[in-house]
Amino acid sequence: MTHRTPLRRLLLGLALITAGLSAGAHADNEQYFPLQSYRVGPYAAGGTGFFGGFIDYLQYINAKGGVNGVKLTWSECETEYVVEKGVECYERLKGGLNGAPAAATNPLSVGIAYATLDRSTADKLPLITINHGRTDSTDGSVFPYVFPLQLNPYSEVSAIINYIGTREGGADKLKDKKIAVLYHGSPYGKETNGVLETLAKNAGFELTLLEVPHPGNEQQSQWLNIRRLKPDWVILRGWGVMNPVALKSAQKVGYPVDHIIGNIWSNSEEDVVPAGAAAKGFISITTHPSGTDFPVLQGIKQSVVDAGKGNLADPKRFGTVYYNLGVVNGILNVEAVRLAQAKYGAKPLTGEQVRWGFEHLNLDDARLQALGAKGLVQPLKLSCADHEGGGAVRFQQWDGQRWNLISDWVQADRALLRPIIEASAAQYAKEKGISPRNCSQEQ
Amino acid sequence: MLYREAGQLSTSYAMERRTFRLRQDRVGLWLLLGFAFIAVPWLGNDYWFSAILLPLLVLSLAGLGLNLLTGYAGQLSLGSAAFMAVGAFAAYNLQLRVPGLPLLVSFALGGVIAALVAVLFGLPSLRIKGFYLLVATLAAQFVVEWVLTRFSWFTNDNASGVITSPPLLIAGLDFSSPRGRYLLTLAVVVVLFWLGKNLVRSELGRNWMAVRDMDTAASVIGIRLFKAKLLAFAISGFYLGVAGSLWAFAYLGTVEPHGFDLSRSFQVLFIIIIGGLGSVLGNVLGAAFIVLFPILLANLFGLLPGGLIDSGQLENLQKMLFGALIIAFLIKEPEGLARLWQRFRQRARIWPLRY
Amino acid sequence: MQFFFEVLIGGLLAGVMYSLVAIGFVLIYKASGVFNFAQGAMVLFAALTFVSLLERGFPFVWAFVITLASMVVLALLIEKMVLRPLVNRAPIILFMATLGLSYLIEGFAQFLWGAQVHGLELGIADEPLEIRGMLLSQFDLFAAGTAATLVIALSLLFNRTRVGLSLRAVADDPLASLAIGIRLPRIWALVWAVAGFVGLVAGLLWGARLGVQFSLSLVVLKALPVLIIGGFSSIGGAIVGGLIIGAAEKIAEIYLGPIIGSGIENWVPYVLALLFLLVRPAGLFGERAIERV
What we know:
The complex is a heterotrimer.
Chain A: H1 6-19, E1 30-37, H2 44-63, E2 71-78, H3 83-93, H4 110-123, E3 127-128, E4 146-147, H5 153-167, E5 178-184, H6 187-190, H7 193-203, E6 206-212, H8 220-229, E7 233-237, H9 242-253, E8 260-262, H10 269-272, E9 283-286, H11 295-305, H12 321-344, H13 351-359, E10 362-363, H14 365-371, E11 380-381, E12 392-398, E13 403-405, E14 410-411, H15 414-432
Helix pairs in contact in A: 2-11, 2-12, 3-4, 8-9, 12-13
Chain B: H1 13-16, H2 23-43, H3 46-72, H4 80-97, H5 103-122, H6 131-150, E1 163-164, E2 169-170, E3 173-174, H7 178-201, H8 203-213, H9 215-220, H10 225-252, E4 254-255, H11 262-275, H12 281-303, H13 311-332, H14 336-350
Antiparallel strand pairs in B: 1-4, 2-3
Helix pairs in contact in B: 3-7, 3-8, 3-10, 3-11, 3-12, 4-5, 4-6, 4-10, 5-10, 7-10, 8-10, 11-12, 12-13, 12-14
Chain C: H1 2-32, H2 39-55, H3 60-83, H4 91-113, E1 128-131, E2 134-137, H5 138-160, H6 162-172, H7 174-179, H8 184-210, H9 220-230, H10 235-260, H11 268-279
Antiparallel strand pairs in C: 1-2
Helix pairs in contact in C: 1-5, 1-6, 1-8, 1-9, 1-10, 2-3, 2-4, 2-8, 3-8, 5-6, 9-10, 9-11, 10-11
């Protein structure tokens, strides 16, 4: 019984290889972005688009000479959208790369964001959860290192209700309308239920909440319910496979698709294309239009994609919703670094310094024009108390080929939401024993 | 020569019944424990604690939990993650709602509640077995996940349904740093492994093995299947429940019900397949393999010139390799990594001679 | 009342879709005693290969033929690399091997074709049909028709051909059939290939419903309770089981959902299957195992 199994040889080999791992060349003037990306698994479509856009924008900035001469560098770690893999990636990458300090983490996953929230604060590394994340982290006095940029979940539903109001001819017309919300059976899907009930009470519409169990590949009973109910509008808070199935099932029961409004995770090409013709006329919100006409995308096309360095495996996805979200995320990250450099000097910065940059982000139309992103990014102004900044969305409609914008920016009712957010943040602070910062004294 | 048994004679029944009869084993174990409790906290860094050692320890405990049920008592289960979830959420609510309850006590009570739930879903095992039993455990998986998301009471009405761990205070000492969380987990895991090792050598453990090997025969020789199977579910549930609490409190610091989904159950099952069904040590080896293998592979491909294989393809490759390895283990080494360790011992015993 | 029938019929038709996946299980279980968890991965692999070929400009028929051929190759490989070395091992071990197999196939499918989401149009309109005020889905009717055809074809194969005869012999007693000169490996490969074909059909129909993407491999979870109710070894049972599960989960979701909370479709089939098991431990049409010591 002494034969050596191939298995053991393999293990031995692997052990030797890790032992031989050593640090590479030392980099002096670089700022590092740890990317907890996901390119396989059920949500790969979102991950490849988003991180493709993000990386391409970083390449584009480097092609233009970096941020004040500081080059941007990054490395990827596959999370597969799985929480503990995301944590492992976070711990592996947070220390920077070859001496280049990490600027911020962008996991694009609610679960990973939650799991690294405390760690980010302890490690003084900003955690960016663009368009998603923990709603109460909008309150920067309790969550100094967390930034749900542009749009948190509460703002999202509020903006949708406001839009339905304008479609019906005024907010007062919402009274006695029926609105059904079809949500994903997960914490993400349930997050807005409480706020929707408040909104329903205020505006006087009749709200029906329908849950679709994860992963959502069977929705017949929910749609039969909708057929019986005959709501005026259906809000789709879906994720992944649930979206195309919802549209197909809607067709099956004969519900008009142009009265379904998708939320921020039901708004991409990947959500509608699998539904084929059933998706034609579907409306969804977006914080950033798709398309390639913006100067910044043209710039990326010229200096990155046409040079054969584009990150997308499928070049046809250039300018799609997820890709552009990645670009928007890149713009916001790089702008934060640029802003922080103005304060701390044009050198690689620590996470703590970059955090200052995020907190003082102030993108007005003039600045967006200069970046070539006017219309792509909404005007955004952050502060110590407000880590969201925007809270506005536009509405787009799918014509079978592409998304067409059908509205201007629609603002969420942020004044109404703010007390709810503050109460929730205060409860968190109490549970965790955090004493909130005093925002009036922050510089 | 390293493993010489010669001269180590038992002079009393107590010595004969020791868990580790060989002096080398005992010395090695103490050295290992000393290393884990004293040297590792000094040598390790945050990355090793929070990204490798903690999941490794917690998963080995979960593996042991499932191994007691599947590897020893022969009841296949795909509901491990559900019992972990019950343990985690029970411990969280106990901490939240019972003021002044010590942390370790709430871990243990969480385990007890998980054990009760496991017994409930184990009841059908008296009438059905094999693949049919899988369905009962899968039912546990889906029902628990649904209940925990459906009733927000379990998550203290958190809008996102996510629980965050309270400060890890034991007897006034704060274990919240990565090093502290490692030590806390290590202590719990070592105690439970010691119990588990003794359990499988006890009368109950032997009954389980009899049930596993042929339950009809076992009942003929007078083993009460009813009791043996339900105890297997209960004790397995307890271990998994404690593992779930550690996963939520000590490792991640936060958890949502979805964090304990079916793929976690598969993960635990793979640990015991790779580590070795019906082995205590195998759980640690299997967990080490599951935790380290992807990281090794990622590092390995990181050495290749950039862009040769992107991280998405790497993950697919990893998945393929994983599947292939599971099949390979089942074909070549059904007793898993634990068996490799046995072989190593055999060789060390006669080394440097060949025979 | 009309609404109730609408729910019932919708559920029955959805159940047929579950049966399609379950039939693949039954075939393999009957012939080789393997509970093949990789059936879901095979559905994914078939659908992904088919749709990728279609997108690369292959005509429908060719794409179908090539995919079928690759399913056959896959079946041969599985027989050679997995089943043969594991011959005579405990069923639980074989089951775990198919778990590994499903990882392998999922990884390979995505490695080969990428993880993008694809749309699949089979050219069947899904406008609702209104019959006496009741809503019926054309697509689901088509799926039901396909399943019926498949079942008839399979039962012809089993009952009217020589191959079918040996298949039944193997299912009945592998040792005896070996003794009379039936080549077990060949039968296994054949059965896996047929299961691959069933997987392809299921993949096309499910793919047209959901879009072709990773989640397709999750349909296996819906097929499990179907199998439990119908019994592992009966194709007719798979159909009946599918109908029961489909109807029950829809009715539960609509009439029970408002009382105890919605989103119960995931576990209702399992609890139902469990209740069935307590009454009939071998399913409706399964064979009762006789135990000897």
